[in-house]
Amino acid sequence: MDLLELKSKTPLVFNYANYVTPQFVANVVNVVGGSPIMAREIDEFNDLVAISDAVVVNTGTWRRSELPETIKLIQIANQAKKVVVLDPVAVGIPSRSVPVKAVMTDSQVNVIRGNAAEIAWFAGIDFTSHGIDATGNGDVQKIASLAAQKTGAIIALSGQTDVISDGHTTQMIAVDVPLLATNVGTGDALSALVGMFNSDEVTVENTARAMAMMKLAGVRASQTVKTPGYFANQVLDELYLIKQDELEEFIRSEVQNG
Ligand SMILES: Nc1ncnc2c1ncn2[C@@H]1O[C@H](COP(=O)(O)OP(=O)(O)O)[C@@H](O)[C@H]1O
Ligand SMILES: Cc1ncsc1CCOP(=O)(O)O
Ligand SMILES: [Mg+2]
């Protein structure tokens, strides 16, 4: 959906969040025009999925004992035909790969949003990482496209260049905003935006809208703020201020077809 529709519908985003960044994620959802709710109690899943428009699963601080309930949550969302976004934080670390494989086998994820190293893991391509961060270089277009083909999910690869791919169509936003990478939680919040914009229909275009929204907020914030602390707050303000026509103009000028 576009930004105008989003603001009128106020999509409810159920975040199975990590315990590092939920406050930032919830605020990002709110200022853009959605409504966040965080939960991880299995007895609440049926009720919460029923009223939600998107389910965003972040594995950043996951415990292995939570694997069965996470799969159950995604299966409930699948049955209810709610979009599911997976944010596979640092999935390339071997002990983290095992449960993510199980999630991918036993439930259906519609969109995977991660940095280049995380997405490279799904593509089966080596990419250097340092904990939660992607630090290497590689052909991000090929990585996103291959990951989409292998998983059947739309891929939202973020970084200096964002790449969105369903394995056939690929779009890119090559806009450098280094301060965006300094704020822990920008990626998690971006995953929630991806869920919101795809809540009526899961498409490459809607996913690109979410990625463009964060980039544009970062571009604007870095015009007035030069240091990371204030930058995070400025990003929230810019996300709040962006208008439908400004977002669509940014998409027209910056989104390239691959
Ligand atoms: N070097 C960079 N230049 C511009 N934007 C970046 C850069 N690194 C990350 N971003 C932006 O920061 C946001 C979060 O992406 P990223 O840092 O890759 O996620 P994560 O926090 O999950 O590792 C995205 O909007 C992405 O476009
Ligand atoms: C630091 C940290 N540790 C586990 S999850 C997490 C936050 C990751 O946030 P992001 O992927 O948005 O940088
Ligand atoms: Mg991340």
UniProtKB/TrEMBL annotation:
SUPFAM superfamilies named among the record's database cross-references: Ribokinase-like (SSF53613)
Single Gene Ontology MF annotation: ATP binding
Binding-site residues, substrate: M38, G185
Matching InterPro entries: Hyethyz_kinase (IPR000417), Ribokinase-like (IPR029056)
Keywords for this protein: ATP-binding, Kinase, Magnesium, Metal-binding, Nucleotide-binding, Thiamine biosynthesis, Transferase
EC category: transferase
EC number: 2.7.1.50
Cofactor: Mg(2+)
Pathway: Cofactor biosynthesis; thiamine diphosphate biosynthesis; 4-methyl-5-(2-phosphoethyl)-thiazole from 5-(2-hydroxyethyl)-4-methylthiazole: step 1/1
Annotated binding of ATP, by residue: R113, S158
Any Pfam family matching the protein: HK
Keyword Flavoprotein among UniProt keywords: no
GO biological process: thiamine biosynthetic process; thiamine diphosphate biosynthetic process
Catalytic activity: 5-(2-hydroxyethyl)-4-methylthiazole + ATP = 4-methyl-5-(2-phosphooxyethyl)-thiazole + ADP + H(+)
UniProt family annotation: Belongs to the Thz kinase family.
Function in brief: Catalyzes the phosphorylation of the hydroxyl group of 4-methyl-5-beta-hydroxyethylthiazole (THZ).
Annotated protein name in UniProt: Hydroxyethylthiazole kinase
Protein species of origin: Leuconostoc kimchii (strain IMSNU 11154 / KCTC 2386 / IH25)
Gene behind the chain: thiM
